[in-house]
Design a protein that fits this description.
Belongs to the CobD/CbiB family. The chain is built from 13 helices and 2 strands; from the N terminus they run ααααααααααααββα. By secondary structure, the protein is mainly alpha-helical.
């Protein structure tokens, strides 16, 4: 029951706070460490390999040790710290708010919508139409459901389950694994570009780590849209998506809403559909929120499997 409370703490903070200021956010602090790696090296792959092993493990060890120390003082202190960790390694409210703002701007101020899209998607928005901006917002909300929420929640549950199975205290391990996954994803988002060889190990590790969350996120989104078959429909469009994972939740959204989602010159999902109008795009973001709430609920139930 106390372990499930940690998930409730994370969800409650998400509702109440949404996202701490950057200067107080441990993920931003971690990003500064990653930034020190982001420069020219004589052996970029070797440096990248060391960094992707040392930095996420360091984050996980610090969090796990902190929760274990808190548990030695008071069980509720450990629950609070684990819940805080889970909150800091997930994001939903801020994602939904930003996506809604971009979609609203497409109806009244397209330049502002293009500028706002930079907080969601790493693509050149300067020439995008209103429909293409809405498409990017829907794609990013769907993808980040998996990367920004489901991944850490699933890591928390599975980490605690493994720890319990081998006789370790589950809460410190669960919190540490959630921190490790967030650290890997952060390194990929900062370094995982083809132009940055030092980021290749992080990109490859992130592909492996996000394999399951992407598919779980797609399934949750399909259920939230009332279209369970949309996951299977999405498979037909994924060959053109560079990432082995992000296409699943994005393609599921395209199938469930029967819209075309397109990154011009890169991929098209559901090519027979039309780009989303504002009402459809808003509905998609709402469905991402429903899927996110379901993810929190399932994580809360999942921790009961630890015992």
């Amino acid at each position: 029951m106390l372990s499930a409370l940690a998930v409730a703490v994370a969800g409650g903070l998400e509702l109440a706070v949404g996202e701490p200021p950057t200067r107080f956010h441990p993920v931003a602090w971690f990003g500064r460490l990653v930034g020190a790696v982001d420069r020219a090296w004589d052996q970029p792959l070797a440096v990248g390999m060391v960094a992707v092993v040392v930095l996420p493990l360091g984050a996980a060890a610090a969090v796990g040790a902190g929760v274990a120390l808190a548990a030695s003082l008071a069980p509720l202190a450990a629950v609070a710290l684990a819940g805080l960790t889970l909150f800091l390694t997930t994001s939903l409210r801020s994602l939904l708010s930003t996506a809604r703002g971009v979609i609203a701007d497409t109806e009244s101020d397209l330049p502002a919508a293009r500028d706002g899209l930079l907080a969601l998607a790493g693509r050149d928005a300067s020439a995008l139409s209103a429909g293409e901006v809405r498409s990017a917002a829907v794609e990013s909300a769907s993808e980040n459901l998996a990367d920004g929420l489901v991944a850490s929640l699933a890591a928390f549950v599975l980490g605690g389950l493994v720890a319990s199975g081998i006789g370790l205290s589950p809460l410190p391990v669960a919190a540490g694994v959630a921190a490790w996954v967030k650290a890997v994803n952060t390194m990929d988002s900062m370094l995982g570009y083809r132009s940055k060889r030092v980021g290749t190990p992080a990109a490859r590790l992130d592909d492996a780590v996000m394999w399951l969350p992407a598919r779980l996120g797609a399934l949750l989104l399909a259920l939230a849209c009332g279209s369970p078959r949309s996951v299977a429909r999405a498979r037909a469009w994924l060959d053109g998506v560079p990432s082995p994972n992000s296409g699943w939740p994005m393609g599921t959204a395209a199938a469930a809403l029967d819209v075309r989602l397109e990154n011009p010159g890169v991929y098209v999902l559901n090519p027979g559909g039309q780009l989303p109008d504002a009402a459809t795009a808003r509905s998609s973001v709402t469905r991402v929120g429903v899927a996110g709430a379901a993810a929190y609920l399932l994580a809360g139930l999942g921790v009961f499997a630890w015992f």
